[in-house]
Amino acid sequence: MSDRGTNNHSEVTDFILVGFRVSSELHILLFLIFLLVYAMILLGNVGMMTIIMTDPRLNTPMYFFLGNLSFIDLFYSSVIAPKAMINFWSESKSISFAGCVTQFCLFTLFIVAEGFLLAAMAYDRFIAICNPLLYSVQMSARLCTQLVAGSYLCGCISSVLQTSITFTLSFCGSRAIDHFYCDTRPLERISCSDLFISRIISFSLCSIIILPTIIVIIISYLYIVSTVLKIRSSEGRKKAFSTCSSHLGVVSVLYGAVFFMYLTPDRFPELSKVASLCYTLVTPMLNPLIYSLRNKDVKEALRKSLGKKIFLFNSILAVT
Fold first, then answer.
1. What does the alpha-carbon distance between residue 118 and residue 94 come to, in Å, rounded to a whole number?
2. Which segments constitute the G-protein coupled receptors family 1 profile domain (predicted)?
3. From the CB of residue 142, how many other CB atoms can be counted at a distance below 10 Å?
4. Helix/strand/coil (H/E/C) assignment for every residue in the chain
5. Which distant-in-sequence residues (6+ apart) come within 8 Å of 30 by Cβ?
6. What is the pLDDT of residues 87-102, one digit of tens each?
7. Which terminus, N or C, of the chain has the lesser number of Cβ atoms within 10 Å?
8. Average pLDDT for the chain
9. What are all long-range contacts of 147-152, with beta carbons under 8 Å and residues at least 24 apart?
10. Contact predicate 173/192, CB 8 Å
11. Beta bridge partners of 177
12. For residues 71 and 45, is the Cβ–Cβ distance under 8 A?
């Protein structure tokens, strides 16, 4: 049985990414939408990282985490979007076995790292609001670096384990993955292996990853809400809540989409694809907008940066 599984597995050299089951005319529209969203992701996240690295006023723990969030959003969307856009024009829609493994591995790494990073950001907001006098001491540069490094490390460990579990399955049936990227559930649908052990391990991994991050976020916000409600002035309460609203919005979109996708029954694959769009493309696009539009420091840094560019441009025009 083991030899048969090995043979079946080794015969697979590529997969077919089915993508969205729509007419060819709509493929052009979808390509343009993907292209626009991906361009906004590149512009927004690269812009956010540039502003954070160049403006000394943003040299704080919150913006250190935000810069890493932009980095993660940029890279995990880049793992998915370019290949999806190519497939809108490709007749074969194929992806090599190695390409599928690489895509799955990198996406898992970055999406898990983002979950832990959002938990670290919730802890940062908890310290800032509940212990403001000790904030600079408790949220030291060393601790911030350790939290970010720990997020990437957890992503790497999870990625290696999940990729190993998924791609040791035997794929002896159809090569057609009913999705626009390589993901666990669509790959399991085309496997002829016994999925019981694989699903138990995957569920355990997801529980170990998701539950601690959600618990940290929930407990942090319970303390934050409790502290904010004790503030007597409405202006103070509004200011305190405004520092958390952006983070809370990002958490809600990401985890809402993830839960919706994995709780959707297998008989509704198109719904899973729509939910996947939310956290593979929509969330990375919205994160820079949410943080820039609701953050005075970022808006001021952006205004300052644009002002310098306009001044430089006008100086060049004046000389010429």
1. 34
2. 44-291
3. 8
4. CHHHHHHHHHHCCEEEECCCCCCHHHHHHHHHHHHHHHHHHHHHHHHHHHHHHHCHHHCCHHHHHHHHHHHHHHHHHHHHHHHHHHHHHCCCCEEEHHHHHHHHHHHHHHHHHHHHHHHHHHHHHHHHHHCHHHHHHHCCHHHHHHHHHHHHHHHHHHHHHHHHHHHCCCCCCCCEECCCCCCHHHHHHCCCCCCHHHHHHHHHHHHHHHHHHHHHHHHHHHHHHHHHHCCCCHHHHHHHHHHHHHHHHHHHHHHHHHHHHHHCCCCCHHHHHHHHHHHHHHHHHHHHHHHHHCCHHHHHHHHHHHHHHHHHHHHHHHHC
5. 20, 22, 88
6. 988 888 899 999 999 9
7. C
8. 85
9. 147/65, 147/117, 147/120, 147/123, 148/64, 148/65, 148/68, 148/117, 148/120, 150/116, 150/120, 151/68, 151/113, 151/114, 151/116, 151/117, 151/120, 152/109, 152/113
10. yes
11. 17
12. yes
Q: How far lies 189's CA from each of 61, 112, 272, in Å? A: 43, 23, 14
| Sign of CA pseudo-dihedral 33, 39, 42, 45 | negative
Share of the chain above pLDDT 70, in %: 88
> 30 near 281, Cβ under 8 Å?
no
**How far does Cα 198 stand from its chain's mean position?**
24
Q: Please list, in sequence order, all residues whose beta carbon lies within 8 angstroms of the beta carbon of residue 19, skipping any fewer than 6 positions away.
A: 84, 87, 88, 93, 179, 180
pLDDT tens digits, 117-163: 999 999 999 999 998 888 989 999 999 999 999 999 999 999 999 99
Q: Which amino acid is at 52?
A: I
The strand pairing partners of 96, in sequence order, are 14
Q: What does the pLDDT read at residue 9?
A: 47
